[in-house]
Amino acid sequence: MRLSTSSTAFNGLGWMLFALSMLGIVGANGQGYHVVEHQLVSRQLPDLSNISTCGLNCLVQSITGSGCDLTNTTCSCASSQLGQLAASCLIANCTMQDSLDLAKLQARQCNLPHESQTTKMLAILVTVYVTALIAIGLRLIAKSFAKIWSTDDALIVAAIVIAIAPFSLVIIMATMGFGTHLYDLQSGQLTKILQLLYAAEIVYVFVLLFAKLSLVTFYFRIFTVPRFRMAAYSLIAFLVLGQVIIGFLTIFSCHPIELFWNKDIHTGGCLDINQLAYANSALAILQDLIILALPIAMLPGLQMNKNKKISVAVIFLLGSVGFISTIIRLQVLAVFGNSIDPTWDYVPVVWWTTIELGVVIVCACLPMIRNLVEKWFPNFKLFKWSSPKPSKDSVGSSSVGTDDKSYKMGRYQKFGRSTSPPQFSDNYVRDHIGGPPSKTDEISPTKYRDMYAYGGSKPKVLEDPMSPPQPYDLSWRSTNPYGISGENPLSTLSQLLLLLLLPSVGRCCEQQLCEQQQKHTCSTCGNSTPQVPMPAALPQCLPQEWTTWTTDDGVDASTRAYWMRQANLALPNPCPFAAFGAVVVNHTAGGLGELVCTGANNNQGSGNPTLHGEMVAINNCSAIFTDPQGRYNMTPADALLAFSNLTLYTNAESCPMCASAIRWAGFKEYVYGTSIDALVDMGWGQITVSSKEIFNQSSSLSSETGFLGGVLTNETDGFFSWQFRPNATCPQGCSRAASGRCAPA
């Protein structure tokens, strides 16, 4: 910076050499200068009375290296070498005003243009800041609907607030002449511009730090893999350390500090500004590369189809725009330390720096903006992930149509009133991490069990065993991913109940089990009505095209089967005696849905007879929702409201206690596998009051709960068939122990 400021005055001053270098004219004493002035006047050359003695001395010393003929004014005006030579002399001996006087004289004699980049610079500056402000505004709107705030929100807001300082400083600099040539400045303005530039450079370093930290802390809410989190923490340390060092070097780049803007001080010194600028840009490029690479490296391991992974990658790669702007800024830095016209040459550096900062801020807001766009424009395909339609022979994922009537009913009618977890999760990936793998992959056991210990209040994550046992036989998935038998579809979806909405008594209809005797009835809930005979043929027992049969909320059979398997996988091992597992799912999150919490029966482990799987899941959800350090940090009132948008899956029909709890919680849907009647047939002691009867008796409650039973019973039955049948086969991964019970192998 010191070199660039002091050398600004001398580009093209060689035209003066012929007046200063005539033989015998310039002497060692002051008389020689009077002779020079006399000769210049006689030749009608410009008045040099405003040029200081120091300035004229420097011109005399630089004549030998000019390379131009003494009488060739054209060559002298075009000579940059002469300007550099004269600048070196002025740095050591003259004042900034001497440089400005000579620059103005040069402009007049060489007819230099009076250009301005101020308008262009201000247009870019205002556009970038307003765009960043709009992006943050949309982000905050999305988060206000979610009613949840996180560290990355605070960091990005801090970045845009602090950015007011450098943006304002550049605007003030523009009013003083920044964006014009040095020779168009007023006396004293250069010092003020350099002071403001010094302050803006320091603040910019820390604005960029806050913006990048917001991106990295956002990743914590997407990826929960321990190794990723360690890498992210390391990246945060690298960002903080790097920017603090750059900030320190910028602040103390000159000693004394005033030397940065006051070149009339001829003691002390400055760092090589060129090297400092290149180091800053190189560090920024390295940081951008790591920030981009970190999430992209995680995508291959996510359970997504190819289209989803590409969509996620595109969102993250939009950050490469900031990376590109950093590279371009690096190119324009070539003039940073060598410019002889800083108020003109530094303008591209400023606007590319501004663009870089704006892009980082906008990219940090894109995932939340995406959620808002999907909310406001549900049919806007740019932000949607295309997924293959599920069939009998492939694993797909369904998305809840935002135009579906029941979807709208399941949400609060006024936009933004919902407190359901999909709105809490404002990231682009998290809602789909728990999705199914491609149709060629097997679904492995859950890597982490319940977020909370069964029945406990402390967060607990269980590590994987070295060779995790399969809780049931997975071999059938290679040919039948949904577990749907082509020969006997009822083995999987027996006792399929149409969606039952309460308390609208009189509009629910049950399709009874299509037994071998093919007995069917259709009765009005809670009312006695004449039985309506159903068709006798077995293929007509199920709705037409039963493989794509969906409930009113658009969740298809394959998605139901997937989450029922997750309820099985919520068990602590493949064959606990009380193998009752449950999961709570948010289907409004789109795609396959979002796992909120899980639970498994823990009567024996806790000594609490009420800790059935459903009760544990509800308790865990409440603990997770209201955890002050957790993802949601909800108030108790908000936690109670959140259940109205969630679905509870349990691998066995709920007992009267649990069914009542489900209704009191106000779940949107309740889905079970093995029925109470089937459990009794297997030898289980049960209170033989069906959950359907409990639901019928709860019609006075204000909430509505969907009801669906008999899902994936060909898998869920196996968890309950061995306990009271000594000859029954144990679930895969288990074998009969000496006690007669099945135990993990």
Automatic annotation (TrEMBL):
Gene3D superfamilies: Cytidine Deaminase, domain 2. One of its GO terms (molecular function) is catalytic activity. Keywords: Disulfide bond, Glycoprotein, GPI-anchor, Lipoprotein, Membrane, Secreted, Signal, Transmembrane, Transmembrane helix. The keyword Transport does not apply. GO terms for cellular component: extracellular region; side of membrane. The chain crosses the membrane at residues 12-30, 121-142, 154-176, 196-220, 232-252, 282-302, 314-337, 349-369. It is a lipid-anchor; GPI-anchor; Multi-pass membrane protein. Residues 558-687 form the CMP/dCMP-type deaminase domain. It is found in: Membrane; Secreted. One of its GO terms (biological process) is nucleobase-containing compound metabolic process. The keyword Lipoprotein applies. Pfam families: CFEM, dCMP_cyt_deam_1, Fung_rhodopsin. Belongs to the RBT5 family. This is CMP/dCMP-type deaminase domain-containing protein. It comes from Colletotrichum asianum. The lineage of its organism: Eukaryota, Fungi, Dikarya, Ascomycota, Pezizomycotina.
